[in-house]
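Long-time lurker. I teach an intro course on protein structure, and each term I like to show students one example going from raw sequence to a predicted 3D structure in token notation. This year I'd like something fresh instead of my usual example. Would anyone be willing to generate the tokens for the chain below so I can use it in lecture? Attribution to the forum is fine with me.
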Amino acid sequence: MNRNNLLRAMMLIAVATLFSCSYFTKDKAAIDDDMMRGKYEVDITPLISKFVNNDSGIAALALSSVKVNVSFYKDNKGVFELGGKVLDFASLFSDEPIDKIHQFSYIIESDSVFYIKLKDNEEFKETAIVRKLSDNYDYLQFSIINQKKDILLNLSRVSE
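-- Reply from a regular --
Happy to contribute to a lecture. Here you go:
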């Protein structure tokens, strides 16, 4: 066996070893954005409890009627959808229509750090740490970053 063939064989063995090690030791907590695709209902109760004072029961009641859905699509695109009677009521008195659907782009880096961009001319902003609460991605948890208060949002898959 000449020197070039020996180097090629060693290189192939090294690449195969690295590939097999990374394949079998993949972090089970890492988020796969392909598996995350689908429509989720967002439980905003933790958000309401963090920002609404105990004295503001009516405000909390109104906000609790807001329905939030988020959909993740291929090519790292998504849509926030806001709904509920309080938004319908507010739109009656608003001079301008209330946007209930908001498109966004997202990326996930370092296995679980969620970055979002609301407009094409913006930079991605670090937004949350994503945890899957089930292996089939039916339940996700977003831990919001850069908030003075800890906020955990739970998402439940509605459809794929």
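Some talking points for your students: The first strand starts at residue 38 and ends at 43. The beta strands are 38-43, 67-73, 77-83, 101-109, 113-117, 125-132, 139-144, 152-159.
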